[in-house]
Amino acid sequence: MAHIIVVGNEKGGAGKSTVSMHVATALARMGHRIGVMDLDLRQKSLGRYIENRTDFMEAEGLQLPTPIYVELPSMDPQQADDAELDRLFSEAVAALEPVSDFILIDCPGSHTRLAQLAHSLADTLVTPLNDSFIDFDLLARIDSDGEKIIGPSVYSEMVWAARQRRATAGLTPLDWVVLRNRVGAQNMNNKQKMESAVDRLSKRIGFRTSPGFSERVIFRELFPRGLTLLDLRDIGGGSLSISNLSARQELRELIKTLNLPGVTPDF
């Protein structure tokens, strides 16, 4: 069976689609069969990322390692029938399963039926988290000083419920990895408080932590062409900047931290 990676966070703007595309493309470059789904049926940021990649390759006459994408119909998920959503999701997973070593599912930045289904199937859950206490509130409620954790959030409770369902079904435990994403160079006091709070919470509700991507202009420039950091040498022909090399190292460390079965980063 394919190993299922779910990229989930019920708050928008955390970089889920950027993380999803880079992880998926990295796995494809390492020779793994990787299928992807975008469960944000309105925005479809990951779907548009892959569409941009396909258009760019066609225009430039290039062949770049690219994940297999199964598109779900565009609709308002709040208006859709649960039974219909269940059917669409099951059919998409079934289509990818025979042709994929890994299936990566990018979830919307909100609580939906499809997101619940994806979390229940996840072998590895990746939660990008911006380096702020506004985003930390996604995981847990904290006191005004940022020191005391009052209790888990509704998202953490959803993950706990998904873990319970996996345990009941006799499946392997869910591996939850929280990425501290878009960490800036400023406000060291806030960074230290965030690091301490995330570390305490990881022990309390059971997730691993990993550095994500720093805030870089390059990510905004790559999206319109559907490219990732690992494509730059293929299209540029020259040496990479120090910033781009550092970003590649961040991606390498992320892939190593995920500890996916049979995956050793070789880029």
UniProtKB/TrEMBL annotation:
InterPro entries reported in the protein's UniProt record: DNA_Partitioning_ATPase, MipZ, P-loop_NTPase
Domain of life, per lineage: Bacteria
SUPFAM superfamilies: P-loop containing nucleoside triphosphate hydrolases
Entry protein name: Chromosome partitioning protein
Species of provenance: Ketogulonicigenium robustum
Organism placement in taxonomy: Bacteria, Pseudomonadati, Pseudomonadota, Alphaproteobacteria, Rhodobacterales
Gene of this entry: parA
